[in-house]
Structure formats: C-alpha cells, structure tokens
Automatic annotation (TrEMBL):
InterPro entries named among the record's database cross-references: HIPP4/7/8/17/18/19, HMA_dom, HMA_dom_sf
The keyword Lipoprotein appears for this protein: yes
Domain spans labelled HMA: 1-56, 79-143
Single GO term (MF): metal ion binding
Protein's name in the database: HMA domain-containing protein
Bias kind Low complexity: ranges: 147-160
Biased composition (Basic and acidic residues): 63-75
Amino acid sequence: MHCEGCKSKVAKCLKAVEGIEDVTVDYANQRVVVKGKKANPLKVLERLQKKYSSNAELISPKPKPENKEKKEPQKKEEVKVVVLKMLMHCEGCANDIKKYLEKMKGVLSVEANMESSRVTVRGVVDPPKLIEYIKKQLGKHAEIVKQEQGQKQGNNNNNNNKKDPERENIFQYPPQYSSQHIYPNQTFSDENPFACSIM
C-alpha cells in the first residue's frame, strides 16, 4: 500500500468478509489490523492474497502448520492381473472392450483375446468394481476367471500345488434376460383359472 486510495480499497474489501467488525489500515507500516469475534484469520488472509497481493502474511494469530507428514504414508496398492471371461463375437467388440477398459482409472494395460473370449486387465483395480464398470459402460456380462498379483514372487513352493482359497474369487451375476423374450398370452388357456369363460 502506498496511498490513501489503496488504504480505502483494502478496508472496503475486508469489511465485506463475514464476521469482521473493525478494520484499521496503517499504510505507513504496511499493516492491516482486523477485529471481529467470528472472523476467520485464514479467510481474511486468503481474501487479501486473492484480491491484492500474494505477498500478504498473517502475523497474529500464527497459522497452524499443516500436517502433510500424516497424509503421506498411504498404503500402496499392488498391481493385479485379472483375467475376465466375456462374450466377444467380432474384432470390433474386442477393440471396444479394450478402449473402454483403458479409460478406467488404475488400469495399466488391457489385452483382449477374441478366440478364447478372455480379457486380461493389468493395473491397480478392484475386481468387483471392474465388473460393475464393464456392466455399466458396455452392458456386457463378465466373470472373473483368474486373479493374481502383478509381480510374482519366487516359486519356492513348486511341490505345493494346492490352490489358496482366498485367491480363487469368482463373482457371478445373474444372467440378463432380454426384453425380446415375452411369454405368450394365456387368456384362453386351460392352465389359467382366471381366464374368460365366454368365447
């Protein structure tokens, strides 16, 4: 601030903030004193920085340091390889499936094999959410055939061929019935006891 005009602009700007009762501007010392019982100091500072100067600082009360350290240690999700069984009758279907699945968040790569009707998805994805995404976006029924971690560990247990029951998750949805299959009218059928008896 270097003049009376700047002083009045800053005072007018801050009086519009909710909770401020009094604004005193000292442009000689480059300070603004804001008083108010319900005034939020961080909102006042944000408004000043947005309107006039990004160099504005909060002198009192001191802002609390942000706890960025607590937010950083997040659990890293592992890359999974999920093999899906889907009906594909042409190369166009395979390309559409690949195109839509590559758009999904967390998917790294998609391989569609039309001959075996299998789609291999590699990425940080939740298999049930992947099935829901396919059903919603493509309207196709999909089943999880195999699910494994992306980075395989050393094969120390070659003799042990027992399958882990936790890894063999198969999610099945009831079949979708098309609206084209309509049952015939049973108005004059002997099986219908409520049918019209007058013909």
